[in-house]
Write a structure and sequence with these properties.
Elements: H1 7-18, H2 20-25, E1 28-32, E2 36-42, E3 48-49, E4 54-55, H3 57-76, E5 82-89, E6 97-107, E7 111-120, E8 125-134
């Protein structure tokens, strides 16, 4: 677990708070390791579908993309562009919040890859994703 006062924590927290879209999703930094990043997204009525118990897939995909980006951003020194994103929905995402755990799979000179698991408040795996990102801030 990273220290909330560390330069890496401050960097990721500043990136998250500077984006209106990320702020609108309510995404916050939960934990930050050397090659891991955990983000939390609370349920909001605007993020659900149907009867309001399930998250819509769009915000879940955004959570995956943002978590993947942030774990690369620690190494790059700032936010990085997404090259590609794949998402697999394994079960309905429900509960008061979701946790996305991103792991840096590869940090290359020009391209980086991260894998992201999304769990609900009960610890159930509901979605997985893989993002490919530029390794350079931009």
């Amino acid at each position: 677990m990273s220290n909330r006062n560390s330069p890496s924590w401050q960097l990721i927290d500043s990136i998250l708070s500077a984006s209106e879209a990320i702020v609108a999703l309510g995404i916050t930094l939960e934990d930050l390791g050397e090659d891991t990043c955990v983000l939390r997204m609370p349920k909001q009525a605007e993020l659900t579908r149907g009867d309001g118990t399930m998250y819509h897939g769009g915000p879940v995909a955004s959570l995956i993309d943002i978590a993947g980006d942030m774990v690369v951003a620690v190494r790059a020194g700032g936010g990085v562009p997404t090259i590609s994103l794949r998402v697999d929905y394994l079960r309905p995402c429900t509960g008061p919040y979701l946790l996305a755990t991103a792991r840096l799979r590869r940090n290359g000179r020009t391209i980086s890859v991260s894998d992201v698991d999304v769990h609900d408040d009960q610890g159930r795996l509901c979605a997985v994703g893989r993002g490919t990102y530029s390794s350079m801030v931009g």
